[in-house]
Specification:
By secondary structure, the protein is α+β, with helices and mostly antiparallel strands. The protein has a single domain, classed as Roll (Ribosomal Protein L24e, Chain: T). It contains three helices and four strands; from the N terminus they run E-E-E-E-H-H-H. It has helices at residues 53-62, 65-71, 79-101, and strands spanning 13-18, 24-29, 33-40, 45-52. The strands form two sheets. The protein has a two-stranded antiparallel ribbon with strand order 1-2. The protein has a two-stranded antiparallel sheet with strand order 3-4. A hairpin with a 4-residue loop joins strand 3 (33-40) and strand 4 (45-52). The chain is elongated. The model has no long low-confidence stretch (mean pLDDT 94).
Length: 102
C-alpha cells in the first residue's frame, strides 16, 4: 500500500542528511499519515480515510470535509474521494432543485 494521502496526494520525498562534515546520506521524508473518520454534512455519513496531518488541519480550516472536497482538484484526490465528491455534488444539486420547486 502506497504511503499516500487520500486528500492531498502527498507522497514520500527523497533527500539527503548532511552531517557536520558535509557527508551526504540518502533518506526519505515520509508524510505523517493518520487513519481518521470524517463526517460528511451533506451526505450525513462517516468516511474512513488515510490522511496526512497537514491535510487534516486544512480540512478543519476550510470548514469540513465537504468544503475541502468541493475545492480540491480531481487529480490530487484518491478514487474513493473522487466518488465521494461526485456524491456530494449530486446531493447539493438535488437539494437546490427541491428548494426551487418549493
Amino acid at each position: 500500500m502506497t504511503r499516500r494521502c487520500d486528500l492531498t496526494g502527498t507522497l514520500p520525498m527523497s533527500g539527503q542528511i548532511r552531517s557536520h562534515a558535509e557527508n551526504k546520506t540518502k533518506r526519505k521524508f515520509r508524510p505523517n499519515l493518520c487513519n481518521v473518520t470524517l463526517l460528511s454534512d451533506v451526505l450525513g455519513k462517516k468516511v474512513r480515510l488515510r490522511v496526512s496531518a497537514r491535510a487534516l488541519k486544512t480540512v478543519e480550516h476550510r470548514g469540513g470535509l465537504d468544503a475541502f472536497l468541493l475545492k480540491a482538484k480531481k487529480d490530487d484526490l484518491s478514487l474513493e474521494c473522487q466518488k465521494l465528491k461526485r456524491e456530494i455534488l449530486k446531493a447539493q444539486t438535488a437539494k437546490m432543485e427541491t428548494a426551487k420547486a418549493a
